[in-house]
Amino acid sequence: MSKILIRAMVLPMTGPEDFYPEGEIGIENNRILFVGEKGSAPGSFIPDQIIDLPEDVVMPGLINTHTHAAMTMLRSYADDLPLMPWLQTKIWPFEDKMSDEDIYWGTLLALGEMIQSGTTTMLDMYASMDQVAKAVLEAGTRGVLSRGLIGNAPNGERAFAENIDLVKNYHGAGQGRIQVMFGPHAPYTCSGEFLQRVKQEADRLGVGIHIHVAETEDEIKTIKEQYGKTPVQWLEELGLFGGHVVAAHCVHLTEEDQEIMAQSKVFVAHNPESNMKLNSGTAPIPELRSRGVVVGLGTDGTSSNNNLDMFGEMRSAAFQQKLVKGATALPAYEVLQMATVDGARTLGLHDVGVLAPGYKADLISINFDQPHFYPRFSIPAHLVYVAHAGDVRTVMVDGKILMQERQLMTIDIKRVCREVERRAKGIAQGL
């Protein structure tokens, strides 16, 4: 058994007033035993290792509730286009040329970037998800994985079968670090019959559903023309809601849509930077939260963002709402909740997202001994409005250190970068 004592400033995310300027965290194996002021460790706790970080803020690891990790292969390949031309003329043709090995290396690059920027858990949707699972297991992070399903595509049935196999082969793998969902892409790429089959199979296997919903005005128009309803209303009519559903984007929602989502307990993955870059719009996040909808934060893929920096995502989420709704909209601590506590709830993870006894030891430390963190009037405000990826010093997942003094412990990142560069350029030259 391994026992670790961390001494640092501690922001446990257990409440707005909870902060320990001189705190400590006790960890045994993969779980937190205690959190409190310095000196509060029980006398019976004899650590095998002490980590002193007096100028760092230790907080829960960040949770990315919507991404396509292997799209690091397409970073900056197709910029400055609207969503549908971007997908149809650039992204999908490139992805058609990607092999299983390309997806493995692209995912490993994404995980290296996530660890270095303080993200410990992701909800991913892509193809070749066995390769994504392999990368997650190697990197040591936590991942909720869904096979992207375009039901209207020629490979729709094969992808559906692959998602079933993904559940059977990887749900609970890595001592629970991997969970699996079904990943129907969107209402406009899947028929009603296909979506109902997804729902039936997800319920049978006891897993959730991860789907893009109401991302663009074009989607709203398409679904309205086909079914006479909004995407949310149509999905409700199909019976897709009712279990654990994570709806990504949710930019264009009527009040009726919002009420349906609240009543059906649909979780939302908010992706402000992707929504801005693709000119999709501004999601009604304060309104959803006021109705009791749980909202997490996501980056989307690196072709529509173009990074996986959740600190940047927090800042953008806050500023976008303040621009549209007023300066008091979405204060800093609420944004931190979306990136941690509510991110865990969105993914259906019940023992991560806060630093408290019994929870998994998924945590990060941010180096506050830098000019941009002085004076320290508000730790939450600094984390949301000031901090960036490069400030993360330490990352731990499941009680295992994945990064120490900004050095990755589980990934040879230079090798990964070289491999992705070679593979991505080779695909692009062939198009």
Automatic annotation (TrEMBL):
Signal peptide extent: none
Catalytic class of the enzyme: hydrolase
Binding residues for substrate: E95, R147, H185, E215, D300
Residues the record lists as binding Zn(2+): H66, H68, H212, D300
InterPro entries reported in the protein's UniProt record: Amidohydro-rel, Deaminase_MtaD/DadD, Metal-dep_hydrolase_composite, Metal_Hydrolase, MTA/SAH_deaminase
Entry keyword set: Hydrolase, Metal-binding, Zinc
Entry EC no(s): 3.5.4.28, 3.5.4.31
Residue stretches making up the Amidohydrolase-related domain: 57-402
Cofactor descriptive note: Binds 1 zinc ion per subunit.
Pfam family, any one: Amidohydro_1
Transmembrane segments: none
Catalysed reactions, as listed in the record: S-adenosyl-L-homocysteine + H2O + H(+) = S-inosyl-L-homocysteine + NH4(+); S-methyl-5'-thioadenosine + H2O + H(+) = S-methyl-5'-thioinosine + NH4(+)
Zinc found in the keyword field: yes
Molecular function per GO: 5'-methylthioadenosine deaminase activity; metal ion binding; S-adenosylhomocysteine deaminase activity
Function, in words: Catalyzes the deamination of 5-methylthioadenosine and S-adenosyl-L-homocysteine into 5-methylthioinosine and S-inosyl-L-homocysteine, respectively. Is also able to deaminate adenosine.
Family of the protein in this entry: Belongs to the metallo-dependent hydrolases superfamily. MTA/SAH deaminase family.
Protein name listed in UniProt: 5-methylthioadenosine/S-adenosylhomocysteine deaminase
Organism in which the protein naturally occurs: Desulfitobacterium chlororespirans DSM 11544
